[in-house]
């Protein structure tokens, strides 16, 4: 009985600690819902009621007591008090009270024991229900934590996808830049090829200065052996190119001026003809009252209109021709710009030629040094071969001398054996 009392006293503390622990877990997860808060408050109310509940003991119970009922309004157990008042006996008079109540029957004690068992069973059921509720709360918190982890994983996946997308965009930008650089390189190579073709086509521009052409000067530059010849031919080529560029600039400037003037005059003539046509149309509309004058005017206007249309067509054709000439001049101007870049190419060519001459001189020096080193190594190799032959001969002589000495030793040993046998010592050989 005392054990049951201790258990019933420690039961609220166990429920309170479990509720606090699960509440701390729920607060740590950060996902407490309204349902979970309501359950926690209901558990706390049950704890407060269990604290106020009296502890049954054999001294206070003499008849079957009513079983606790659940209040239908708020869900808390409402405990009915026993009909009998508490015993006036105190704890120090326990023995005297037990003697005075010795006349109680065993049936009352069994009923009291049954009541205690029922209350203990109900408390255990309530404890199990609270444990189930706590387990559900724990599972809810775990589910919420898993959901939060899933959201975090989704966010990280989205960030990784954004990083991959940015990396792909960067790679595409790099590839676009590389393609642009390759296109520029191809354009530069085509420009160089056009320049080479243009140099092949260019002939002597100033006949009074000499009969040599640029192609012949380039051939001289290629066939030149010394640096002075290369420099002279390069200067001649640059001078010819500079003069041709200046003349082409003058020619293109004059042609551009003429083309622009013709274009402006053609445009002015077209506008003048359009104004005249508009005036003729207006005069035609005004003179519609007079039929005879209208007929004459229409005939004259048709003639003039045909004439103007012919003039307009001629002006349009001339304008198209001027546009074509302008396009050709633009092409010439682009060639002029490419020729301006030719000076840099020639400078690079001269630098490359000088570097090539220096490399040739360095190569000749290195070849001379290697030749001298090879001669020295060949002389050393010949000396080493002579020494090797001498050593082989000395080795052969040494081996022959060793064989002779071994034969002599063998003969002497045999002679010693024979002498020992004659003397009677025995067949014993000494080790030399």
TrEMBL record:
Compositionally biased residues, Basic and acidic residues: 81-93
Keyword annotations: Coiled coil
Origin: domain of life: Eukaryota
Region (Disordered): 70-103
Spans traversing the lipid bilayer: none
Chain coiled-coil ranges: 263-332, 356-401
Protein known as: Mirror-image polydactyly 1
Origin species: Pelobates cultripes
């Amino acid at each position: 009985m005392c054990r049951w009392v201790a258990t019933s006293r420690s039961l609220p503390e166990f429920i309170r600690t479990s509720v606090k622990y699960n509440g701390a877990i729920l607060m740590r997860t950060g996902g407490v819902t309204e349902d979970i808060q309501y359950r926690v408050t209901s558990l706390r109310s049950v704890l407060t009621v269990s604290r106020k509940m009296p502890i049954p003991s054999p001294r206070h119970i003499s008849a079957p007591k009513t079983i606790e009922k659940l209040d239908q309004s708020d869900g808390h157990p409402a405990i009915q008090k026993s009909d009998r008042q508490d015993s006036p006996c105190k704890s120090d008079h326990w023995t005297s009270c037990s003697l005075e109540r010795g006349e109680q029957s065993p049936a009352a004690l069994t009923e009291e024991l049954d009541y205690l068992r029922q209350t203990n069973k109900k408390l255990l059921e309530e404890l199990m229900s609270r444990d189930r509720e706590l387990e559900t709360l724990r599972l809810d918190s775990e589910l919420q934590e898993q959901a939060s982890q899933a959201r975090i994983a989704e966010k990280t996946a989205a960030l990784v996808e954004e990083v991959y997308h940015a990396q792909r965009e960067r790679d595409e930008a790099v590839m676009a830049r590389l393609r642009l650089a390759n296109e520029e390189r191809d354009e530069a190579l085509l420009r160089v090829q056009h320049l080479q073709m243009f140099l092949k086509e260019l002939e002597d521009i100033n006949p009074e200065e000499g009969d040599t052409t640029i192609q012949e000067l380039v051939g001289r530059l290629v066939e030149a052996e010394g640096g002075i010849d290369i420099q002279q031919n390069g200067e001649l080529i640059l001078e010819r190119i500079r003069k041709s560029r200046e003349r082409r600039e003058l020619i293109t400037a004059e042609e551009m001026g003429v083309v622009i003037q013709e274009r402006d005059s053609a445009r002015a003539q077209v506008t003048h003809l359009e104004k005249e046509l508009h005036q003729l149309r207006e005069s035609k509309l005004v003179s519609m009252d007079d039929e005879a004058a209208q007929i004459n005017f229409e005939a004259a206007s048709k003639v003039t209109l045909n004439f103007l249309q012919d003039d307009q067509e001629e002006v349009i054709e001339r304008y198209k021709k001027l546009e074509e000439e302008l396009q050709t001049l633009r092409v010439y101007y682009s060639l002029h710009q490419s020729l301006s870049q030719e000076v840099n190419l020639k400078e690079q060519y001269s630098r490359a030629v000088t570097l090539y001459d220096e490399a040739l001189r360095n190569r000749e020096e290195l070849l001379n040094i290697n030749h001298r080193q090879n001669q020295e190594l060949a002389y050393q190799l010949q000396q080493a071969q002579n020494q090797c032959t001498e050593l082989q001969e000395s080795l052969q002589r040494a081996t022959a001398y060793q064989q002779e000495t071994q034969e002599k030793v063998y003969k002497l040993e045999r002679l010693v054996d024979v002498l020992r046998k004659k003397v009677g010592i025995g067949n014993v050989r000494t080790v030399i």
